[in-house]
Fold these 2 entries.
Entry 1:
Amino acid sequence: MRISTKGRYALRLMLDLATYSSGEPIRLKDVARRQEISEKYLEQIISVLNKAGYVRSIRGPQGGYVLQKTPQDYTVGMILRLTEGSLTPVECAEGEGGLCSREENCATRILWKKLDEAINGVVDHVTLADLMEWQAGAGDDYVI
Amino acid sequence: MRISTKGRYALRLMLDLATYSSGEPIRLKDVARRQEISEKYLEQIISVLNKAGYVRSIRGPQGGYVLQKTPQDYTVGMILRLTEGSLTPVECAEGEGGLCSREENCATRILWKKLDEAINGVVDHVTLADLMEWQAGAGDDYVI
DNA sequence: GTAATTCCTAGAAACTCAATATGAATTGCA
DNA sequence: TGCAATTCATATTGAGTTTCTAGGAATTAC
């Protein structure tokens, strides 16, 4: 039950854009160098974020990317779900059901729903702005 | 970030053994029929549970499996970790660290630790006995 | 001794992951 | 106007994982 590199890199990418934001567009090459991630792989990842309107791209020399909104407008859940797909641990735990004949009286489904809620409780309440604060060193005593 | 069928089947297998326990050993063939899971696949899964001492096997005719302990002695976390491997969402969030050069001031690591705690908070507090109760229909108003 | 069961190992088809490769499109600037 | 820097789009690939299936060996109640 691992978060893939795609989701993790997307998060670091967005956090990098937030951290090094200065009005000027930020080149992917610089993100790749700072985060030690392949630039080509980052291209694929940011393409998803771009199509979703999470970042704005400027082409050509002096081009790059900027965040579309402020860091507190992006939850970790938004970014992970976009790049990673659903975060629900079991398919039958999302939506209203109808996927499984065993659904009535299915004890494990109740379990998966609880697990889903616990995961959402974290990812939907932490924002890029929180990550920036934690980065500054105050992370250990932050409580959700 | 999905739980694989192996972990889910292991849980249903253990729950089935708990539910249909009667002193007599329970044949895998019956579990397979009730749970609609391939018997051959179940063999592989129960082999892990057997080696870990979670179930006891009786060979030969009238053979089968029985739970080694009572249902409240098995947490969902024990069963999933055994069959699924670690449940930690990102490798660097388990143990004491030393895996990553970026570790100091790594905001995302703090996030992954929080997510890990949230997941453990569910799986380490729900037992097979809880699942049995939920199966009986009282699931919806159960609160951890 | 036979049939019912568990036990063991190998293999295979499909899928996912984590990139890499190649080149086209766009555009600021000399 | 043309060059170079950047984003954009698509295809491919190698490794690994998942989810089984296959075949048979070992054990044992009757």
Note: Chain A has a mean pLDDT of 93.
Entry 2:
Amino acid sequence: MDIKSAVLQLSSIAQEARLEIFRLLVQVGTEGLPAGNIGERLQIPASTLSFHLKELSHAGLVNSRQVSRFIYYSANYEAMNGLLVYLTENCCAEEGCNPIAACKTE
Amino acid sequence: MDIKSAVLQLSSIAQEARLEIFRLLVQVGTEGLPAGNIGERLQIPASTLSFHLKELSHAGLVNSRQVSRFIYYSANYEAMNGLLVYLTENCCAEEGCNPIAACKTE
DNA sequence: ACAATGTTTCTATATTTATGGAAATATAGA
DNA sequence: TCTATATTTCCATAAATATAGAAACATTGT
């Protein structure tokens, strides 16, 4: 993980609509949700939602896959864990404290 | 932790200079470093640095204390842990996975 | 009180980001 | 092929953020 990727990922969730989207996807699980469903739940206009989903995808924090007419978006747990590890890296150089625990990445 | 605070904290580290500052402070430990020292290490002009430190302080991710003429800035480990927990909250509702481990907060 | 050092505020400018309507594109079923 | 549905791209506008020099402010030692 380099600093530019970390900033990109952090920027992608440093915005209220996108953080809501991301957290929703994290909670929903690996299946994910179709874009329209996300927009409906969070009350976000389609074009705005599309913009935000692109930001999240581009940062690598969410994945997408097409299922017939729908595009399913889901959290990228591996990327999320990578980011958390990066933030806490060497955080306890002196005293040693517990490393961060990983969330599901299957 | 509410979403507005989370966005504020994420925004504060979603910027290259500030992420560098934050990570430096996380690695340095609870003692922290005087502003000038940070600026010297990271090659950031005083006024720019001051702006960034204010952002980080305002978000609550770093603390400051005055020691004679110097102002020491240090990572707020409790706030950092709170943010990490917020991001991973309910991340494994279905299957249950390890909760995040805390870093030093003494 | 004065000088030296450390830090912040003021200011202007440049750059990036967010928003959502309208139009375009893609997929699937009749 | 025509139609309905899902999603994205285009576009213009509005708002927020980053940068750093110069000036101001604070603290300490002489």
Note: Residues 10 and 83 of chain B are 8 Å apart (CA to CA).
